[in-house]
Amino acid sequence: MNKPHIVILGAGYGGIMTAVKLQKQLGQNEAEITLVHKYDYHFQTSCLHENAAGTLHQDSSKIKIKDIINRSKINFIIDEVVSIKREAKKIKLKNRKLHYDLLVIGMGPEPNTEGIPGLNEYTYSITDINSARFIREHIEYNFASYANDIKKDESKLNIVIGGGGILGVEFAGELINQIPVMCREYDVEKTLVHLYMLEENTSLLQKFDEDLAHYAITSLQSRGVEIIHQAKLKECQDNKVIYEVEGKEHVIASHTFIWTGGVQANPVFEKSGLNLKNKRIEVYSNMLSTKDDSIFVVGDCAYTANENGEEILPTAKKAIGEAAVVARNISLRLKNKELTSCQPVKQGMLATLGRDDGVATIQNHKVFGWKAVLIKRISDNHYLYKLGGWNLLLKKGNFHLL
Ligand SMILES: Cc1cc2nc3c(=O)[nH]c(=O)nc-3n(C[C@H](O)[C@H](O)[C@H](O)COP(=O)(O)OP(=O)(O)OC[C@H]3O[C@@H](n4cnc5c(N)ncnc54)[C@H](O)[C@@H]3O)c2cc1C
């Protein structure tokens, strides 16, 4: 009898953890497992803002997939998913086609450009290792270019971050620490560099407690981030950002606009005909799609809610917790047993503000400063241990706790 074919799309936190769990839970004769991912490495998305700011080299965030999967149990294909044909249970990749019996979608989100003119063309988003490296090199190039100008163009030293959510705030916190280092490297006068943050609300970190948001604003401003509240982005061009505050238009001359303002559905699953809710795939508590009972969904792709019906925020912790449930439910499904439910993760909130500052709520306690960073480092290291044991932790762990 043919073994059922399980295909996992995307090796982010959710996809790779599902694969690692399945390789432990299933025997070689029970199923054929295939993991499809764009790159030959998994990356720690939650460190990308450090890679983009240049405070952490991108190689530290990369983990070779062959080092963590058992290739006698998992076929690994480096390719890009183009479409999912659910009726035929087929996946179209750029270079081949695959048939599946059970599918796990873990492809994460796409940046949301919200139809604002010029956003697609002239902004940068922190989405993967290549985009993070590109942002760092682009900023450095502009510093180098300014230093080399005969007629100095100061707009090369203006950096604009659009969106004051977690990602924007974390990136600003890293970058403002790195600017003095770059100024020394490229012989640039520090007072000429401006780091702006445009936020359309009256505060940053909307989903955080007010005290934490206030702390974050004060921390960033004290180090020189110029936060512009109630700034409604109107348009982006290759050398300027146009925004409005209380109906009045303003322009910042800049070659560097980093957009962190939200995500949208990945076009692959958007076209697949699955039920979507708030740009994610609607799932039952057992992580099966509400439209197709041969498709499990994990991580940022999956729309899940807590007992009060409130959306659970997409985080690495959510993706990792769901991966354990998806792997267990695949094993149960193969044995024709009843599937288990995913318990909503207890959500803490955490945003780092650079190497030694941050804010967090852990079990309703507010945490400020270095303690928040320590929590983040411990949680990143714990993840590495879960993924690849002591070997991976010792190879890739971040032990510069502060
Ligand atoms: C800069 C940054 C900082 C963050 N900080 C934190 C934090 O401190 N704590 C926290 O909990 N969360 C944080 N998050 C959120 C967290 O990273 C996400 O919630 C988490 O990555 C979701 O995991 P996932 O597996 O669903 O998706 P992802 O980790 O995004 O993985 C999806 C993978 O699928 C691949 N993929 C996508 N499309 C295709 C395709 N068509 N074909 C093949 N492969 C594809 C992608 O390359 C990607 O590797 C941060 C996010 C960012 C961007």
Give a quick set of tags describing it.
25 strands; four-stranded parallel β-sheet; binds flavin-adenine dinucleotide; 9 helices; 402 residues; alpha/beta; 2 domains; FAD/NAD(P)-binding domain
Please provide the count of β strands. 25
Q: How does the major sheet shape up?
A: 5 strands, parallel
CATH architecture of the largest domain: 3-Layer(bba) Sandwich
Shape: globular
Catalogue the unreliable spans.
Answer: none
State the CATH topology of the largest domain: FAD/NAD(P)-binding domain
- Small molecules bound: flavin-adenine dinucleotide
Explain briefly what this protein structure is:
With 402 residues, the chain is α/β, with parallel strands linked by helices. The chain has helices at residues 13-25, 48-53, 119-122, 129-148, 166-186, 210-222, 267-270, 316-334, 370-396, and strands spanning 5-9, 32-37, 41-43, 62-64, 74-78, 81-85, 90-93, 97-99, 102-105, 110-111, 158-162, 194-198, 225-228, 231-237, 240-245, 248-253, 256-259, 263-264, 276-277, 280-282, 295-297, 302-303, 349-352, 358-362, 365-368. Helices cover 32% and strands 25% of the residues.
Description:
The model has no long low-confidence stretch (mean pLDDT 93). The chain has 9 helices and 25 strands. Helix 1 runs parallel beside helix 8. A hairpin with a 3-residue loop joins strand 7 (90-93) and strand 8. The N and C termini lie far apart (55 Å). The protein has 402 residues and is α/β, with parallel strands linked by helices. Strands 5-2-1-9-21 form a 5-stranded parallel β-sheet, with helices on one face. Helices cover 32% and strands 25% of the residues. The protein has 2 domains: 5-109 and 265-346, FAD/NAD(P)-binding domain, CATH 3.50.50; 119-262, FAD/NAD(P)-binding domain. Flavin-adenine dinucleotide binds at residues 10-15, 36-38, 45-46, 48-49, 80-81, 106-108, 126, 128, 167, 170, 266, 268, 299-301, 314-317, 319, 350, 376. The site of flavin-adenine dinucleotide has 34 residues, from helix 1, strand 2, helix 2, helix 5 and helix 8.
